[in-house]
Design a protein that fits this description.
Helix content: 40-55%
Strand content: 5-15%
CATH class of the domain at 358-629: Alpha Beta
CATH superfamily of the domain at 358-629: DD-peptidase/beta-lactamase superfamily
Number of strands: 20
Largest sheet: 5 strands, mixed
Radius of gyration: 31 Å
Strand order of the largest sheet: 2-1-5-13-14
CATH topology of the domain at 358-629: Beta-lactamase
Shape: elongated
Number of helices: 22
Distance between the termini: 129 Å
CATH architecture of the domain at 358-629: 3-Layer(aba) Sandwich
Length: 636
């Protein structure tokens, strides 16, 4: 009897539940509408773009970058389906078996725990349009929205919106920012193994992000294998491709947000420049602006990759690397590396930090000498040490390693960065003249320089971008171009609000520049910057190592591009020596290697161009330079 009553009660409750559920579903069907998906995935935030129109980041929104489906790699789409919904294109809007399982598990409590094998359509509906609550009412709304989505949008449109809205952890929404957060590159630059990691993590970032725990790393590797196997089973990859896949290195976790990672320095720099142009903070946050920068996407990625790959191992926490690259003749900033994570350090090491310039200033003395008629063939005493006059006071100068070179011409002295030649060279040419050359080349008035013998050896402390700008002037055969970052600004109605333009001025003669470049080529072909030979195309430049190895530079150029790289610490009293296992960190070590790796990527696919032939300013006949300003013709 009791059993019969229980069965009747169960049947009654089931029937009542079905009627109540059907009524609630019907009510939801007529009252719940699909919100505009564009209102969620897009906003009136400001979009910052590379020069090619690809998105860098946004101001005033979640850390999200929208990509059309055509720009999301097919492998990435397939990997996500392999992870979340392998039969997505043939599935209905929701999984009946999954929902039934969830209802059975949770009906008694009146609360859903989220289990149940959601389809991609369900996940998109849940992510984009609903609150995070897990009530039965919300689940029914999710089903209604899923069904209506499938009736109003194509499978491709739903997948595109899903891939641009799903949360991947580390504050990133969508595949583009996920690629940046986990691998420091855009979605279309991911390898197959990196793609599989991104697809694996989205299921539960807190459960799989390897930076959170060792257990997470183990779980991620298992799910990684699951995704690769799924892609193979669906024949989205070949057995040969699957066999070659290895679990990749995931970059360490940075603080989340629009300003996290290296790109944060770019976003902050753009904000600063926009302020200078008169745009208000409100305009940037909700004005719907589109800011196109001068940054080249390929070059910027190459800068990040070069520093990441070649950053010295076991380096002190306060080691900083700045990189800036400028297009000669236009002043366009095409790449900028200001630091690994803006949220950890807000000072941009390319545009705001300063470091002792060292021998990167010696070219200014060469230009001053050439303009004074002193040729590259002039002969100098390269012994070390030597003492020179500094306003009546003795000024002792030594070469690197105290190496003596004897009688040496200016060309060889440049190649080997001989200090005891360059100090008297600056004095002969005129120390005020050396400073004037530096200013004309691009070193701003804000960088203090005094007309003392040491100015030639780089005791001034410029920004990396200042030196890059000066070397861009050399590459442009004497045409100075003011560096600029903002190419254009358009409003929400596509109207042009600002257009950047080159501001140029001829500051040196082409003949002087041809001879300077000829001298600086020697630094690469057989001097202190020989590491740059691996670039495989003509380059000219100068290493720079400051006193006590407080900073190390490599600044150089090809006809198409000029770039400067500097390594330094927080204080000029802290030496770089010992970093990376090197007894002495000079400009020819890490800076030259990073410069070369960067330039390889930035110039990939561009034609190899040659420099102009030397003009032989001052003649070819050797002149012996002696103390007291006396010049003697060297016998033939």
């Amino acid at each position: 009897m009791i059993r019969r009553k229980l069965i009747r009660a169960a049947i009654f409750l089931a029937g009542f539940g079905f009627i109540a559920g059907s009524t609630l579903f019907a009510f939801a069907w007529f009252t719940v509408s699909i919100p505009d998906p564009n209102a969620y995935v897009n906003s009136q935030s400001t979009i910052i773009q590379y020069s090619n129109g690809e998105e860098i980041g946004r101001i005033g929104s979640q850390n999200r970058q929208i990509l059309p489906l055509a720009k999301i790699p097919l492998d990435l789409r397939n990997a996500v389906m392999a992870a979340e919904d392998r039969n997505y294109y043939s599935n209905k809007a929701f999984s009946v078996t999954g929902i039934a399982r969830a209802l059975l598990n949770n009906l008694k409590s009146g609360n859903l725990n989220g289990e149940g094998g959601s389809t991609i359509t369900q996940q998109y509906a849940k992510t984009a349009f609903l609150s995070p609550s897990r009530t039965i009412q919300r689940k029914i709304k999710e089903l209604v929205i899923s069904l209506k989505l499938e009736n109003s949008l194509s499978k491709d449109q739903i997948l595109e919106n899903y891939l641009n809205t799903i949360y991947f952890g580390r504050g990133s929404y969508g595949v583009q920012t996920a690629a940046q957060q986990y691998f420091n590159r855009n979605a279309d630059q991911l390898s197959l193994s990196q793609i599989a990691v991104v697809a694996s993590i989205l299921r539960s970032p807190g459960y799989y992000d390897p930076s959170l725990s060792k257990e997470n790393e183990v779980r991620l590797k298992n799910r990684f294998e699951y995704v690769i196997k799924g892609m193979l089973d669906k024949e989205w990859i070949t057995p040969e491709e699957a066999a070659k896949v290895k679990f990749p290195t995931v970059i360490p976790r940075t603080k989340s947000g629009q300003l996290s990672g290296p790109k944060g320095h770019i976003v902050a720099a753009v904000q600063k420049e926009m302020g200078k142009l008169g745009f208000t903070e409100d305009q940037l946050l909700v004005g719907g602006l589109v800011i196109k920068t001068t940054l080249d996407q390929k070059a910027q990625q190459s800068a990040v990759d070069a520093v990441t790959k070649l950053y010295p191992k076991k380096a002190p926490d306060n080691l900083h690397i700045g990189l800036a690259a400028i297009r000669p003749g236009t002043g366009e900033i095409i790449a900028m590396y200001g630091g690994a994570d803006y949220l950890e350090r807000q000072l941009n090491d390319a545009t705001q930090s300063i470091a002792l310039a060292g021998s990167t200033f010696k070219p200014f003395a060469i230009v001053a000498a050439l303009e004074a008629g002193i040729p590259l063939t002039s002969m100098w005493n390269g012994d070390s040490p030597q003492t020179f006059d500094d306003l009546g006071k003795p000024y002792e100068v030594s070469n690197y390693g105290n190496e003596g070179w004897g009688q040496i011409d200016l060309l060889e002295a440049t190649k080997h960065s001989v200090n005891t030649v360059f100090v008297p060279l600056g004095q002969f040419a005129g120390l005020e003249k050396v400073i004037d050359v530096a200013r004309r080349a691009g070193i701003p008035e804000s960088i203090a320089m005094v007309p003392a013998p040491s100015v030639v050896l780089g005791v001034a402390s410029p920004h990396v971008i200042d030196v890059a700008s000066a070397y861009a002037t050399f590459a442009a055969q004497g045409i100075y171009s003011k560096p600029y970052l903002i190419a254009s600004v358009t409003g929400p109605n596509k109207g042009v609000l600002f257009e950047g333009e080159s501001q140029t001025q001829e500051v040196f003669s082409k003949d002087v520049m041809a001879d300077l470049t000829y001298a600086l080529k020697g630094t690469v072909t057989g001097g202190t910057g020989a590491a740059a030979l691996k670039l495989g195309r003509p380059a000219a430049g100068k290493t720079g190592t400051s006193q006590s190895n407080a900073s190390a530079w490599f600044s150089a150029y090809t006809p198409q591009l000029a770039a400067s790289v500097a390594l330094f610490r927080d204080s000029a009293s802290e030496s770089l020596n010992g970093i990376g296992g090197l007894t002495s960190v000079t400009g020819g070590t890490f800076p030259a290697r990073i410069w070369t790796a960067f330039m390889k990527g930035a110039l990939k696919g561009q034609p190899i161009m040659s420099f102009p032939a030397p003009a032989n300013v001052g003649g070819l006949e050797p002149i012996v330079m002696t103390s007291g300003g006396i010049q003697e013709r060297k016998p033939k």
